[in-house]
Fold this protein.
Amino acid sequence: MNGTTNKVLLIGNLGDDVKLHHFDEQNCIGRFPIATTESYISRTGERITETEWHNIVTRNKLAELCDRYLKKGDKVFVEGRIKTRKWEDNGQTRYTTEIVANSIEFLTPKVDNDQRNTTQEKETKAEIPQKTPIVEPPFIEDGEDDLPF
């Protein structure tokens, strides 16, 4: 293998709502943190839980979708790459490491919203068709076959 790889796969929960920043009518960036948690038993038998926080960056259409459908606490699957940024702040050099997302799958079902549930129930009741009678196929006597051979 001649090349290198920069690929990240994360499943975690949003630590905050998506912050969307528009540059113009076509371009925007969405930023949000996600937490991944690992639990294990130490040598002393104590249960240890460690949480890592990851800063996720999305762009354009994906950022708009995340802003529209995700909220704090939602579970997501993020696929992307690691990127480190550097900038000057009051004479000090600052760094941050982010995950630039290529794709995000929303893992939290959206039926927990009470308002959506009420609306869906009304629509479902209005769309239920009347029961249609079950029509059985014609009776075939023993010895008769509908096959041509």
Q: What stands out?
A: The CA atoms of residues 85 and 96 lie 5 Å apart. The helical segments are 60-69, 114-127.
